[in-house]
Amino acid sequence: MKITYFEKERIFKLDTPKTSYLMGVVDEENFLGHIYYGKRIEDYNIGYLMRTDEPPFVPSKNNRERGSFYDTFPFEYPTGGLGDYRESCISIRTEGGHVGCSFSYVSHNIVKGKPDLTGLPATFGDQDSCMTLEVIGEDKHAGMKVALYYTVFADTDAITRSVKIENMGENPFYLTKVFSACLDMDNQDFDMISLHGSWARERHIQRKTLGYGIQNVSSFRGESSHQDHPFLALATKNTTQENGEVYAMNFVYSGNFRAQAEVSQFDGVRMSMGIHPEHFCWKLMPGAEFQAPEVVMIYSAEGLDGMTTSFHHLYKKHLIRGEYKDKKRPILINNWEATYFDFTTEKLLSIAKEASSLGIEMLVMDDGWFGKRSSDNCALGDWVVNEEKIQGGLKYLVDEVNKLGMKFGIWFEPEMISPDSDLYREHPDWAIAIPGRVATESRQQYVLDLSRKEVVDYVYECVARILRSANIEYVKWDMNRQLSDLGSYELSADRQGELYHRYVLAVYELQDRLTKEFPHLLLENCSGGGARFDPGMLYYSPQIWCSDDTDAVERLEIQEGTALIYPLSTMGAHVSDCPNHTVGRVTPFETRGIVALAGTFGYELDVTKIPQEDRDMIPKQVAMYHKYNDLVRRGDYYRIASYSQNHKYDCWEVVSEDKKEVLVTFVQVLNRANFKSRRIRLKELDPNKQYHIEGEERTYSGEALMYAGLQIPNPWGDFKAMLIHLVEA
Ligand code: DGJ
């Protein structure tokens, strides 16, 4: 890794192990232009790519005639309102109501390591593992300073970017848009890849041709959402898993976002990402700063596999923290699909007893243990143990579970308030609502106004008090409705536009406090399934519940889309009962186990009620988890075949760093007549090593497995899964 400034040419060059990123300062007005992002090159003298001498660029020395150049120049951080008609990255409104602003380079710093982003989650690294460039620009007229941050890592082909705005003037101004990253490039016949979804159908891969105009994915639901994902990739038309060029961005943020690509009249592409400007307006007082969240950028010349590997490496090493960063997670059993709201101490203990005898390591008590919560229409906010259900109290239950040799975990939904709750009766103004307007309920609940310190403190104490009261080693932090009716009873009129972002900052503050007070806690984020599965939340919790859809077949697409960016160690995945509660499908218990093994692994069923043959299979699945989880967590994941594309079968592998071991998962979704076997080609083995399938004599060379393939016998029937474990012979 390297960051260099070539003074004579006024060019910055950032190098990761396999990529280079160049930008340059031009013109008397010191505009910062994007030059190149791609395969690593040693030459830096390529400032000509900014095309400053090509019409319709009109150099700004000729100030009176610069009408068109803004619209063609590849800006590193485009500003709005002065003649660049492509979508800008930043907009402000002055007290006088004017909106134009500009960015002129002033100075820069190059430092070892990576400064924290105040109040925000971000990737991290020490002095040896990364270095950071700060480029400072200004708009003298607006009294605005803009600092652009770029970090490169020694061990990963990622570049992270963020932006800090400071008001250097004497009057306040309003930030109405602050994106965090932009890439102005030529269109290379790109396809746009994004992740789309819905409740119980999160992160399905979508790929389409990029056309002229603006195409974007976004959320202004107050969270990263089920529907769109804070991720965007532009891939050359011929890009496959293994080949082709990919430019990707992923937002380290859990609130509103917009990720977009705009193809201009000159066949330029502007790819950008940041906080969604809808309903965003941040008042910046003189001397005040605004820190925008981080974007991770990846360039891969090795197709989608190269992109995925870089994301996984970065997140495993430079984003996920805490005790469980690289530790095997306890196999849990969660009572949600087993009992929903209908449980007691006795019922939970009966599940725990049976589960512990089968090798399951932790009982998680889900929704319904507090206040008068016997359905989802009341009591959120009343975080007091309901001793009619939890007879003997929480400590008794936890102690009894511990006596069985199991850990205990608990569910919270701290950010919410039910209209039918003691909390709401006492503090109706604590809910987000527009004064005087009937607020929209969703799942019969409102969202708490976390822009208020007293509310944040109340929420924190509710959770912490419960955790201090017993030996609780895991928390599932849920969030079951999206934000609407934005209004805070506390914020002044000129700051109501800050509520969405202040809300997200408060969620981060809460989880930061929690993980500091309880450093041994295993935190799993969740949002009505996987609506807040994003890098922001991964900074606080090493795993996130992937989806409320636990059907093994549905999970194939959900987990494929999720693993396109996120390591397998982060994907909350459980075996549930059949017919599946979301889609009614019946799949073999073995298949459900094999699919869940690609994630954190656990159970979500009433183990006292499932068929005996399923129960008998649990100890074998537990053993498989213990055998393979180190490899699954630490190894490199590669996609081999995609059911979402071929509509027949799915296949992926995880290979160890030393390439001595590989675990292949093959799932035949629908069988076909006259298919005896399928040939699959493994990836990233050592071509010179000999491997054998565990338990078999015959050996295969790495090169044969990769280039010729392995013959997988076609299983008889639908929804059949198998694991193939190959080790060096
Ligand atoms: C949504 C979660 O995704 C489920 O797993 C469960 O915890 C429910 N909420 C409880 O209300």
Helix-strand blueprint:
Blueprint: E1 2-6, E2 11-15, E3 19-26, E4 31-39, E5 90-94, E6 104-112, E7 130-139, E8 144-153, E9 158-167, E10 173-186, E11 190-196, E12 204-209, E13 213-219, E14 231-236, E15 246-252, E16 257-263, E17 268-274, E18 282-284, E19 289-291, E20 294-300, H1 303-318, E21 332-334, H2 336-339, H3 345-358, E22 362-365, H4 393-403, E23 407-412, E24 416-417, H5 422-426, E25 446-447, H6 453-468, E26 474-477, H7 499-517, E27 522-525, H8 535-538, E28 543-545, H9 552-563, E29 571-572, E30 575-576, H10 589-596, E31 602-604, H11 612-634, E32 636-641, H12 643-646, E33 649-655, E34 661-668, E35 677-680, E36 690-693, E37 699-701, H13 702-708, E38 710-713, E39 720-728
Helix pairs in contact: 6-7, 9-10
What does this 3D model show about the protein?
It is a single chain. The chain has about 725 residues and is α+β, with helices and mostly antiparallel strands. Among the domains are: about 85-320, Beta-galactosidase, Chain A, domain 5, CATH 2.70.98.60; about 340-350 and about 360-520, Alpha-Beta Barrel (TIM Barrel); about 640-729, Immunoglobulin-like (Sandwich), CATH 2.60.40.1180. It is about 20% helix and about 30% strand. The strands form 7 sheets. Strands 6, 7, 8, 9, 11, 12, 14, 15, 19 and 20 form a 10-stranded antiparallel β-sheet that branches. Strands 29-28-27-26-23-22-21-31-30 form a 9-stranded parallel β-sheet. Strand 3 (about 20-25) and strand 4 form a beta hairpin. Helix 6 packs parallel to helix 7. It binds (2R,3S,4R,5S)-2-(hydroxymethyl)piperidine-3,4,5-triol (DGJ). The site of (2R,3S,4R,5S)-2-(hydroxymethyl)piperidine-3,4,5-triol (DGJ) has 12 residues, from loops.
